[in-house]
Amino acid sequence: MKNKKIIVSVVTLFILLILGFLRWDNLETQSSVNFNYKYDRWTGQKWVEFYLPLASSNSVEFPLIYIDEINQNDINNYLAKQALTGELVNKWIERTKFTDGYLGLLLMNIIVIIYSCIRIFILKRKEDIH
């Protein structure tokens, strides 16, 4: 029974790690090198990373709502419009909930594995003593 809990936890951990690696799909694009489009498979939402021209590695990430691509000149108007409607925040909240849930499951699973291993180790030592 003790080993069954560890086996189930390890299999679950393996599945969670695979799901984490498969979450994002990088999309090919014809637009500028300043943009990186990706698709969140968990929420079904397309996102864009915009790399500011003067900032080498810093990026701004936001969801694409009702559009498939954006150009650099339209970013400010697009973000202002989506921020006023509240959809921008709703998409971020949805993404954050999925991420937090995933991390919670992952952490809980790791804790169960560690607890089970420690418990088996302690019980084995008690059996060796008696």
Please state the overall shape, judged from the principal axes of the Cα atoms.
elongated
Report the helical percentage.
55-70%
Indicate the low-confidence ranges by residue numbers. none
- Total count of strands: 4
Report the end-to-end length measured between terminal Cα atoms: 21 Å
Identify the strand order in the major beta sheet: 1-2-3-4
User: Which structural class do you get from the secondary structure elements?
Assistant: alpha+beta
On the 0 to 100 scale, the average pLDDT is 87
| Radius of gyration of CA atoms, rounded to a whole number | 22 Å
Beta fraction? 15-25%
Helix-strand topology string? HEEEEHH
Description:
The chain is α+β, with helices and mostly antiparallel strands. Helix content is 57%, strand content 17%. The protein has three helices and four strands; from the N terminus they run H-E-E-E-E-H-H. It has helices spanning 2-21, 75-85, 87-129; strands at 24-27, 35-40, 45-51, 59-63. Strands 1-2-3-4 form a four-stranded antiparallel beta sheet. A hairpin with a 4-residue loop joins strand 2 and strand 3 (45-51). The longest helix is centred in the last third of the chain and has 43 residues, at 87-129. The radius of gyration is 22 Å and the shape is elongated.
